[in-house]
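new request in #modeling-help
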Amino acid sequence: MTVFFRLFLLSASLMFFYFFYLYIEEDKYYPGASFQTSNMPLFELEDLYSDKLIINTDIEGAHLINVWASWCITCRIEHSYLVKLSSQGIPIIGLNYKDERIDAINWITKFGDPYKLIIHDLQGELALDMGVTGAPETFLINNGKIIAHYRGEVNEMIWSDVFSPIIKKENLFNDN
Amino acid sequence: MIIKSLLFIFFISSTNVLGDSLYNFENIKDEERFYSLIKEIRCPKCTSGSLASSNAPVSEDIKKKIIELIKEGKTDAEIKTFLSDRFGNEVLYNPGLNSSTYILWIAPVLFLFIAFLMFFFRRKT
C-alpha cells in the first residue's frame, strides 16, 4: 500500500512538472498568436481602388497581411504603428474586411496609407478562409505560406515579442 | 370592412414572412446535420458559446460556410477539419485525439487504474 501510494505521489508530481514544462515551452507567447504554418488560401478579389483582380501570385514573397476595416476602432489605434512599420520598409498588404469601398477609401485618405496593396474583401470570404475572427488581425506570409497569425492590435510590444523573433529566424525583409 | 380585410391580409402575409426558415436546405437530413454541427462547434469570437448560440458576424459566416460545405457533399469530419485548420483545435467542443490532447483522454482511465490498484492492494493486506 505505502509503496503504491509513494509511487502515485511521485508520478503525480512528475506529471505536474512535465505539464508545467510543456506549458512554458509552448511557443505561444500571447493568447492571440499562432505559429502554425499553413498554405495561403487561393483567392481572387478586387483591389480597393479599382476592379482589377488580385490573385495569389500578386502577393509572392514575404509580406505582412493586415486585416482592417473603417468600422473597426482598434484598427484606428493600430494604424499609426503600421505607418511606422511601413516607413521602416516592411511591406504590408491590407485586407479590407467587410467594408464599403467608399468608407475604406475615405479612412485611408484621412489617416494615411501604410499599405502596398489593399484587397477588398466585402463578403469576408478570403478572411474566413484564413481564419479571421474579426479585425484587426495580422498575418506574416512567406512564399505562399502563412507562418504567423496574430489576433488583435499590433503594437511595439507585440511586434518585438511575436513577429520579430520569427522574422529573424526566417531571415525575412533583409533586402529592404 | 376594407380596413379589416386589409389588416387581415397584412397579418397573414407578415406571418408568412416570419415563418420562412433562416437557412435553406435541399433535404431534412442536411438540415439535421447542420443543426447538430453548429452545437458541436465553438464560436471563435466567444469565450464559451457554440455557433448555435452566437450571432457574431464571424459565426454567421461560418454557418453559411458550413451550409455550403454540406451542399458540396462534405462529411461532418471534413467540415470539422476544415474549421479546425483555420480557427484552431479550440473550435471543436469534442477534442480529437492528437499529440496535444492525448492526456485529456488517457488521464481519467489512468487515475481510475491507479485508484483501482490502491483499492485492490489495500484489501489484500
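bot summary: Chain B has two domains: 24-94, 97-125.
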